[in-house]
Amino acid sequence: MPDSKTAPRADATEPDRVWFRFMRLHQRMLMKMTARVRALGLSIPQFDLLSTLTEREGISQNELAERLYVTKGNVSGLVDRLVQAGLVERRAIAGDRRSYAMHLTPEGRRLAEEGIKTQRDFVAQTLGKLPEGDLAELDRLVLNWRERVRAIDEG
């Protein structure tokens, strides 16, 4: 007999049901990750910014805003707080007196790496427990859904 928690229900093909399940799962995962990141002394936006800088250090605040999908004003305030906390440095960009390159301090890098490890552990405990075929299918479906959203944005 299928497990009632994992077996698809009759209404599972209704897009609204799938949407609500997906959004509730997203909210639950965000709450769990927020608690884990807070234990490190960071908010999710702070962790996002620090982890983004581990991927590409030396980018401008404008590039950072684009990568994080937030406004330049949001990034500016966030960077101000992280500079004040000693986690990020603004460095002048040669030939551009209005822009600064964002760099992690050693403590910022340590916290970012600790947060990334925390995130990887959470993913391993959850998504990592899916069978390989299910994970591949989920990836295919999410990419397909993303392309449909992008088509609307471009339309």
Give the topology.
Blueprint: H1 15-38, H2 44-55, H3 61-68, H4 72-84, E1 88-93, E2 96-104, H5 106-125, H6 132-154
Antiparallel strand pairs: 1-2
Helix pairs in contact: 2-5, 3-4
GO biological process, one term: response to stress
Organism: Bosea vaviloviae
GO molecular function: DNA binding; DNA-binding transcription factor activity
Features:
155 residues; mainly alpha; 65% helix; Arc Repressor Mutant, subunit A; two-stranded antiparallel sheet
3D structure, described in words:
- The chain has 155 residues and is mainly alpha-helical.
- It has one domain: Arc Repressor Mutant, subunit A, CATH 1.10.10.10.
- Helices cover 65% and strands 10% of the residues.
- It contains 6 helices and 2 strands, in the order H-H-H-H-E-E-H-H.
- It has a two-stranded antiparallel sheet with strand order 1-2.
- A hairpin with a 2-residue loop joins strand 1 and strand 2.
- The longest helix has 24 residues, at 15-38.
- The mean pLDDT is 91.
- Keywords: DNA-binding, Transcription, Transcription regulation.
- Residues 15-147 form the HTH marR-type domain.
